[in-house]
Design brief:
The protein is about 50% helix and about 10% strand. It starts with 6 loop residues before the first strand and ends with a helix.
Amino acid sequence: MKTPTLRIEPYRHSATSPFVIEGYRVNGKRRREFFKTKKDAQTRLDQIKTQDANEGTDGRGVSTALRVMAAKCAKHLEPYGKTLADATDFYIKYIKQTERSCTFAELVASFTATKTKDGVSDRYLNDLRSRYGRAILEFGPRKVATIEAREIDDWLRDLPLSPQSRNNFRTVLHALFAYAEDRGYSALNPVAKTAKAKLVDKAPDIFTPQEAQALLEAALPEPTPEQGATPDMIQPWLGNADIIPALVIGLFAGLRQAEIERLDWNEVDLGRSFIEVTAEKAKTKKRRLVKIEPNLAAWLTPFVRKTGSVMPPNYRHKLDATWKKAGLE
């Protein structure tokens, strides 16, 4: 299509504005400007040509208000060494990132579904759901791309938890946002810029033989009341003997708590005197056999079963009650 030529033409339909500039296009649309004298029309035509030479024909559609706004914005960006083009590119990228992002709740659902397909343990999945459930209360409906590091940092600091537990939350959030970054839901991983809680490197607490003995004895039931005593007079301690296998395996075989929680009786072989910690249940993901010493075998023998979890239901509640009964801090 031929580009129209800018020119001044006589206009016979107006007594007050007998001259018009023709060939003027703004954003592809025809525009005519009328003038009282040919001199005024020529002055305006020269302005248009000068503007076209400096800015191109695209500059014709820029209003005075937009020019003023652009000048102000450019001045605001100047201290940062950025231009309007930089700001525009950044904001367009932000808009596109937000449009293809998802909510935090949707991200959690997608991530946990992926981990389920990857075959991670139920214990790990339950831990993720528990921790992410608390975060959903804060960030659930938010688009992932809009969540900033400072917000996550503040949320982690406000958790009423120990430094180690706070760091554990940070770890699972970091994995979640790394997944978001890989899927294009977020331009970066904001958790990487959050602070870790400082941990005091304490030596682990170790049971003395007397403390171990007190704990195990406290798990056993007390003798029934003497003859003649009524239940309302004496309330005997019924004990929590079913926690003893888990306790003694930790005390005398050194298995980790998480490994005991996953341990089945079919992996406890008293005949050959070893406990099998399978690769799936070991923290190191390597199978190992742990020797059952005679004292451990003596404690396990009354409780041994063919199959079933070594860890009884309500273990934590029973352990706390037994701990209190033993008078241990």
